[in-house]
Amino acid sequence: MFTSKKKLILILALLMVLIVTSTAAAFFTLTYWLNTPLDHNRFLASAAQQTPQEKVVKLAHGSSLHATAHLLFKNGFIHYPKLWVLYAKATSQTNIKAGEYVFDQSYSPKAVLTKLIKGDVVYRSVRFIEGQTFKQVYRVLQNQEGLQQKLTSANTPAVIEQLNLSVEHLEGWFFPDTYYYSLGETDISILKRAHTKMQNVLTTQWQNRQANLPYNTPYDALIMASIIDKETGAAFERADIAGVFVNRLNKGMRLQTDPTVIYGMGDAYKGNITRKNLKTPTPYNTYTQHGLPPTPIAMPSEMAIHAALNPNQHDYIFFVGKGDGTHQFSVTLAEHNRAVRQYQLKRVKNYRSTIKQ
Predict the structure, then answer these.
(1) For a disulfide at 305, which of 30, 87, 124, 225, Cβ 3.0-4.6 Å?
(2) Is it the case that residue 50 has pLDDT exceeding 80?
(3) Helices 302-309 + 187-207 axis angle, to 10
């Protein structure tokens, strides 16, 4: 027979076994729940499983862990919000990031929390294209979904002040590229990134320029690059176009380039340039003004900046469009006039000024 002492020991032992067993079971259950996708049972029940449906969840700045859990529960991505919060606090995973997230039912509660901690948010993109003016860039930014509009206008002094830039003019100072942003980012932050990148690219290219170029400052090269990009869409021609303009500057000749005239006309340009336009003086009319125009006329590419600072060495001082997006280069005026008669006065039906992609 058991003594009272032995009975007590046996009871305590049984209690310990029950506690350990219960704890192990609870741990196993919690671990299973944390790591099991929400659609697990549906997956087991159907061999013809369809691709999980994605859903966007927007997490506002300052959202508490409890509010986040409720939002996830409401959208069907966790079953037990209070337990999910307890797990997050117990493991010190409470620093969730605001933003826009994409989830589907293949996510486990643990995977959901991990994504929020990492800040693996949805990123949208906005593209600035070489040859665009700042007005065009401004309109692009205005139409971007999920981007906060902080710019009050496209007015140069106002934008310079809002961006805190050390420039006098905006044109040309933003690098053409694709920029990614998350929900709530501002148009100002995108432009600051584009401006910084343009500064870095211009500085690097200026440091690796050819000798004896007719530029006094990197800004002169930026102006030239903007003209090159507007003159040709054929990458292999950029250095030749640059060479023509450098030759003309060195000879004291006017640049006589149509894109600068068009820019100087502003909203008056309706698609065609007349002889009167070419003879009407503006600061940007390089048919009437010597040297470079006062500012860039567009947003130049890195390739155009490189071409402006590393032009091809040749004797060409003229070029004319051939109707296929490329140009005929000439050394003498007689050669140029023949090219004009051939390619401009006798234009083919499928004439185009941009190269076929």
Answers:
(1) 225
(2) no
(3) 30
Grade residue 218 by pLDDT with cuts at 50, 70 and 90. Answer: very high
Question: 84 to each of 40, 54, 294, how far by Cα in Å?
Answer: 18, 21, 62
What is the rounded distance in angstroms from the CA atom of residue 247 to the CA atom of residue 276? Answer: 27
Does residue 140 come out as left (phi exceeding 0), alpha (psi in the -120 to 50 range) or beta?
A: alpha
Helix (H) or strand (E) run with residue 164 in it: none
d(CA 148, CA 86): 35
Q: Which residues contact 202 (CB under 8 A, 6 or more apart)?
A: 218, 221, 222, 305
Listed range (40-54, 178-192, 267-281) with the worst mean pLDDT: 40-54
CB 179 within 8 A of CB 189: no
CATH topology of domain 55-118: Dna Ligase; domain 1 (3.30.1490)
| pLDDT tens column, 285-316 | 999 999 999 999 999 999 999 999 999 999 99
What are the phi and psi torsion angles at 83 (to 5°)?
Answer: -65, -40
Instruction: Render pLDDT for 308-356 as a digit per residue (tens, 0 to 9).
Output: 999 999 999 999 988 888 999 999 999 999 999 988 876 666 565 665 5
Q: Which amino acid is at 143?
A: N
Task: Flag the least confident range among 55-59, 223-227, 298-302.
Answer: 55-59
Within the chain, all domains assigned CATH 3.30.1490.480 are found at 55-118
Report residue 223's pLDDT band, with 50, 70 and 90 as the boundaries: very high
Contact between 233 and 130 under an 8 Å Cβ cutoff? The reply is: no
The two most distant CA atoms of the chain are separated, in Å, by 128
How does DSSP assign 194-238, residue by residue?
HHHHHHHHHHHHHHTPPSS-S-SSHHHHHHHHHHHHHH---GGGH
The closest of 104, 98, 134 to 116, measured between CA atoms, is 98
Residue 79, helix vs strand vs coil? coil
Bridge-based pairing state of the strands 123-127 and 327-330 = unpaired
